[in-house]
Write a structure and sequence with these properties.
Distance between the termini: 62 Å
Number of domains: 2
Number of helices: 16
Bound molecules: flavin-adenine dinucleotide
CATH class of the largest domain: Alpha Beta
Strand content: 5-15%
Oligomer: single chain
Helix content: 40-55%
CATH architecture of the largest domain: Alpha-Beta Barrel
Order of helices and strands: EHEHEEEEHHHHHEHEHEHEHEHEHEHEHH
CATH topology of the largest domain: TIM Barrel
């Protein structure tokens, strides 16, 4: 455990602060090592993220931290258990911070990747790598043998295929959101055509009096070409949605697009409240994003995240991603606006149901979401138990990256691919 005491040279509380830290740390019989850091000037303070003297930092976290304090070289006052303010950190807060740090270290040890996870990681990485190869996409979409496999996850090439799936969902008491497949378009024309596809879909849903709810990706709408053009393109869809009372969800792509996606979603949401966005629990930043979206009353779909992300921005182990999902789901259930819990993970779904029941949150204040072709049994079971379940129904010819991400999600899908290849070759 790394314990630092950050003080200005003339701090009147430095000695007493160090004595309290030492006393708190020796409570378990160990000889404490406290590193004293003298903070000389404002530049130094800014580099250290120092907000006043004395500051006790355990494993990089300030004890009794007050977020949003300005960087300064003055004295810092801490609330004491008796309600007064004083220049030293209360011993109770130090003991709690030490305990918290030990717990984090234990959690990190438990979450360390295990050898048996390696094959799953490799197959995931391979599929996600393949999902980004345009040459493979051309090859795969030309091969008839992939079609049967794709049909498990994709409604079909045409809008009619999607509508047929919706009719079946409707009969089973399920809801839907329709995705007109496509991402990372290379020209403005392609982006405009993709938006036209969504307009046609919204019109078809409205004509048939089917719930109009669509999900789209910003790279399909030209985000990589020009963010402003992209927003205007999506605004055409949002305008039509407003006319017919539809809901538009903006999917989340890889972390390099998170800021731009949230910015565009916020702007469109300001003009029409039935625009929502997606948060991925594997991203380390998501706790902050969720709090802000709660404040802004933006509807959030929470998912684990489907892209190949570096450890600098994303949690690596399944345990961390799941723990993050559970925490974010609770925040959204407690204070969010009609959140969508998008997972097929039964343990997390059970947690959500338990948390909602324990906190008096009615099932009509949130919904579950799942993918077309995945865990139909679970979808139907939840509907039978009185929950709303919305199924993500993708259609269109640009199915390749979406399909590869689905394969990446489950190691057993490798076997599924191989078995289907063998069967289709024989047949
Ligand atoms: C409605 C919806 C919208 C989504 N939108 C986005 C988005 O905008 N951005 C984004 O990054 N990700 C999105 N995702 C994908 C998500 O991030 C996960 O990659 C995906 O849902 C798998 O994670 P899981 O939560 O089901 O948990 P996992 O732990 O991956 O899976 C739990 C169980 O579900 C089953 N399962 C899960 N996936 C599959 C599969 N492909 N094939 C077969 N069985 C499977 C298995 O039984 C597995 O054991 C979305 C997911 C859903 C359900």
């Amino acid at each position: 455990m790394r314990v630092e005491l950050l003080v200005t040279p003339d701090c009147p509380h430095a000695e007493r602060a160090e004595a309290i830290v030492r006393a708190a740390l020796t409570s378990d019989g160990r000889e404490p090592v406290v590193e004293r850091i003298l903070v000389g000037d404002l530049d130094h303070a800014a580099g250290l993220g120092f907000h006043g003297s004395p500051t006790i930092r355990i494993d990089g976290r300030d004890v009794a931290a007050t977020p949003d304090l300005p960087i300064n070289l003055g004295c810092r006052l801490y609330a004491q258990p008796d309600g007064t303010l004083s220049g030293t950190v209360p011993a109770e807060a130090i003991v709690a911070a030490v305990e918290d740090s030990r717990q984090r270290a234990a959690d990190a040890r438990a979450a360390r990747p295990r050898l048996r996870d390696v094959p799953a990681r490799l197959s995931r990485a391979l599929f996600l790598w393949a999902s980004r190869r345009h040459g493979l996409a051309r090859l795969a979409t030309a091969l008839p043998l992939t079609r049967g496999m794709v049909r498990r996850f994709v409604a079909g090439d045409r809008l009619e295929d999607a509508l047929a799936v919706l009719e079946r969902l409707h009969a089973g008491g399920l809801r839907w959101t329709v995705d007109v497949l496509g991402e990372s378009v290379a020209s403005r024309e392609m982006a405009a055509t993709a938006a036209d596809g969504y307009l046609a879909t919204l019109d078809a849903l409205a004509e048939r009096r089917l719930e109009a709810n669509v999900s789209l990706k910003l790279t399909q709408m030209g985000l990589d070409i020009d963010a402003d053009f992209c927003r205007q393109n999506v605004a055409r869809i949002v305008d039509r949605a407003r006319e017919i009372g539809a809901f538009v969800r903006i999917d989340m792509e890889d972390h390099s697009r998170t800021d731009a996606t949230l910015a565009i979603a916020r702007r469109l949401h300001a003009g029409y409240h039935d625009v929502g966005v997606v948060i991925q629990s594997y991203l380390r930043r998501s706790a902050d994003d969720v709090e802000q979206l709660i404040r802004e009353r933006v509807r959030v779909r929470l998912c684990k995240g489907a892209y190949d992300e570096p450890a600098t921005v994303a949690f690596v182990t399944r345990a961390e991603v799941d723990a993050s999902f559970a925490r974010l789901a609770e925040r959204l259930l407690a204070d969010g606006r009609y959140p969508a819990i998008a997972t097929h993970d039964e343990a997390l779904i059970d947690d959500v149901i338990r948390f909602a029941a324990a906190n008096g949150i009615n099932p009509d204040r949130f919904e579950f979401q799942m993918l077309h072709g995945v865990r139909r049994d679970l979808q139907e079971g939840l509907v039978a138990a009185g929950f709303t379940v919305r199924v993500y129904v993708p259609y269109g010819a640009q199915w390749y990256p979406y399909f590869l991400r689905r394969l990446a999600e489950r190691p057993a899908n490798v076997l599924f691919v191989l078995r289907t290849l063998v069967r289709e070759r024989r047949g």
